[in-house]
Amino acid sequence: MQVFDKNYANPRIYTGNVGYEQQIASGWAGYVDFTVSKGVHLTRFTNPNVCCSTADLVSTADVNLGSGPSYTGPAPFPNLGAITDTVSSAKSLYRGATIGVRKRFNNRFQLDANYVWSEDLDDDSNERDPFSFHYYNIYNLAKEYSYSDRDEKHKFNLVTHAELPWKVAVDVRMQAHSAQPYSANPNATGAGPLCSNTEAAHRVQVGLGPGGTNVDCGRNFLRKDNGYFAFNFGAARPFHLGERFQIIPKVEVFNLFNNKNNINTISGSGTPLFDFDGFIRQGVGDPREAQLSVRFQF
User: Fold this and answer.
1) Residue-wise over 106-144: b if at least 16 C-beta within 10 A, else e?
2) Where are the domains of the chain?
3) What's the pLDDT tens digit per position in 161-213?
């Protein structure tokens, strides 16, 4: 059964940004930028047909499968089963800082490079999936506040263009970002400390805490193996045919160092068909590729 909370409110995002740019040499400028973005009334899907408190919670190992928590208390509506209630109780917070350098085009060369440190937090990243519940305890949703599914701590970008001798134009683009978080590692070996990347096959360590207690490692406490690095470049050389026409052959190489760049390495549902995390692919990313083209310009 699908229902809509009568107090549902549309999401709101409040954003503040400040930046500063300063010339540091002839044609060169350095810049910094700070952004804070606060989201409230974000959509969350819950199952209210449970009872009655945290004391009735039945701990399960992996909350990422989406079936939601179960409780020993009698359900308010036992004949209905799970009820999907669309509520607006989730929240988010993004904080990012950028530092970069920019060179305007002169002396046949331009460049823009920047590094971004960011922290993306929320207590529910599941707004696209109305079919599953990924929280551990509906009576303690505050404990879900952690890194969002989108969090990438470090990003680096570089774009440059140069006009070399013999009329050869070269473009270089480099992009990199660190891995995203997740709440369980199905490839864990079971060795190592609790809640480590090698031990934690599940978010909740059932009976493995002191005295046989359960340990909730928290939401998104691990990192996937989906860090990204790509170095691409292209080179072109125009040949003039009279005053009006040009033939421009160009060679381009993508992912020059053939990095694996894994995509969505851990899937909550096990199949892309029922994943709503924004990915449409799984597995290894694009390999090293090269292409040759010829453009006729007039």
Assistant:
1) eeeebbbebebebebbbbbbbeebeebbbbbbbbebeeb
2) 2-183+218-297, 184-217
3) 999 999 999 999 999 999 999 988 878 888 888 899 888 888 888 888 888 88
